[in-house]
Amino acid sequence: MGCVMKKLFFVVVMFISVLIVNAQIVEKTFADLKNEGNAAIKANDFPKALDLYEQAMVKWGDKPIVDTSMVYNMGICAIKAKSWDKALKYFDKAISMNYKKVSSLLYKSDVYRITKNNTENLKALEAALALSPEDAKVKSKLATYYVGEANTIYTKGSAIILKVNNDITAGKLKTTDPAYIAAEQKAKDEYTKAMPLIDKALSFDPANKTAVQIKSAIEQALKG
Description:
The protein is mainly α. The protein contains ten helices and no strands. The protein has helices at residues 2-26, 30-42, 46-60, 68-80, 84-96, 101-114, 118-131, 136-169, 178-204, 209-223. The protein starts with a helix and ends with a helix.
C-alpha cells in the first residue's frame, strides 16, 4: 500500500510540474514577447524576431496597437526574412500610425524594386518625395529608378546597333543599305526616348555617375 501511495504521489507531482511549466509558457506577456523579439534582432535572427513580435501582437488582442517602433521593426524584420507581403503590411501600418513615414515608404520602394513592381516602386518614391522634397536619400533613390528605366531603353537601342554592325562585319550589310539606315534610325529613336529619363535622374542627383555616362553615350550616338 505504501509503495502504491508513493507512486501516486510521484505521478501527482509530475502532473503539477507539467501544469506549472505550461502555465509559465501561456503566461508570457506582450512585453515578454516584445523583449524576446528585440533580443532576436540583436542576434540578427530576423525571422525569429518577426515571429515573436507577431506573437506579441496576438497577445495584445483587438486593442489598437500603439507600439509604433515595434510595428516598424516588424517591417524591417520581414524584409530581412524576405517576407515581402508582410514587409508591405507592416510598413503600411507604420505609415498609418504616422511613424517614420518617409523611411517606411523607402523600404516599401525597396520591396517593390526587388519584386520588380516598377509602378508601385515609383509611387512609393514619389510619395516619399512629397513628404520630404529635399531628402537626399529620397532623391538618390529616384535618380537610381530613372537611371534603371533609361538604361533599359538605351540597352535596347544599343542592341539594335550591335546587330547591324555585326551584319556589316559579316559582309551581310553595307552602311548604305536601307536595312542599316532603318536600324540606325530605330536605335536613335530609342536613345531619344531614354534621354528625358536620364535628365530626370540627373535632376534628382547630378552626381550620379551612371546617369552621366549614359547621357554622354546617348549624345554621342545621336550625333553619329
